[in-house]
Design a protein that fits this description.
Layout: E1 2-8, H1 14-27, E2 32-36, E3 50-51, H2 58-65, H3 69-79, H4 84-94, E4 98-102, H5 107-111, H6 115-122, E5 128-135, H7 142-159, E6 163-168, H8 175-186, H9 188-198, H10 203-215, E7 223-225, H11 234-246
Helix pairs in contact: 1-11, 2-3, 7-10, 8-9, 9-10
Length: 254
Amino acid sequence: MFLAFMVGSAGSGKSMLTAALAEYLLEKEQDVCIVNLDPGVLNTPYNPDVDVRTYVSVEDIQEEYGLGPNGALVMASDLVANYIEDIREEIEDIGAEYVIIDTPGQLELFAFRASGPFIVREISRDPKVIVYLVDAPFSANPLNFVSTLYLSVAVYTRILEPQVYVLSKVDLLDEDTRERILGWFEDFDMLEADVEGSVRDESLIIARSIVDGLRGIDIFSELIPVSAKTGEGLPLLSAALTRVFTGGEEILEG
């Protein structure tokens, strides 16, 4: 069994990519289990096989503890850890080869609270990977791109699992902007030069320091352009996951 956690900032397209990747794998005749770990989501673009909302209700928490929406969502996300054995048993009973896990919309609820790393660790002992979504429209600004990579490093230090980087929603970019972002990922000198060309205040000093730090971190292998809407990049993402999980190569078709 292989587990892929969809992780990224709010609005980066985690749920849509979960649905698209699951559909792609099913078309390739792979067994897939979809897990929803977001207790606060109202609707999903997929039918989850395992749904944390079965165990934790944000509305019930609001009523019982007199919390507002944000406080109840934080508490609900933490309470998920109490049901990790039940969630694990559900996943194991399904017995799928691939488990795609959609994480909460707010990244901090999953990555930066104690419950998140605990859930990743305890949900299974089988191989895992973090699919980190880089929001393409947001990252078209070089300073935003630096911030996104910096955040991804923070996630890595918390969870300590391999990361596959996806440039999500590429269908919303023109070709020049898309190639520019991919170029930044491959060449931090180019990224730094574009940051210098777009920033004139004290944030430039901080951005330079962050880029220098990123140069010394060996977790940035490739940035895969993907569109959940058009299906572009899903074969490349599937192949990247295969390499991480098995150390092998997947033959790309079409």
